[in-house]
Specification:
The chain contains 1 helix and 4 strands. By secondary structure, the chain is an alpha+beta fold. The protein has a 4-stranded antiparallel beta sheet, with helices on one face. It is globular and about 55 Å long.
Amino acid sequence: MPARISKLVSDEIKFSRSDGSYMRKIDLKSVVWRERKHYVSQCLNVDVSSYGATKKEALENLREALELYFQDSKAAKPTIIEQPDVVSLTLSHA
C-alpha cells in the first residue's frame, strides 16, 4: 500500500540559552502520513523526520528531533516554505 500524506501542519519551535536571555522562534511546516502500522512525520524546511504509533506521537517525536537538530546546528537556516501543495506524480520506469 503506498504512503498517503494525511496532514500538513505548521509548528513553531522555541529556543533559549541556558541563562534564558535569548529565544528564537522558527515556524516550520511538516507532513504526516501512515506507513503500515506507523505514522511518519517529516519537516519540509529541513531534512528531519520521525515516526510514532499515532499522528500525535509522530509529531511530538518530530518536535523533539527538530529541537535537537537546531540545538546542534547553530548555523542551520531552514528553507522557507510558504504554501506547500501536495501533488501526485506518475512515473514510468524500466
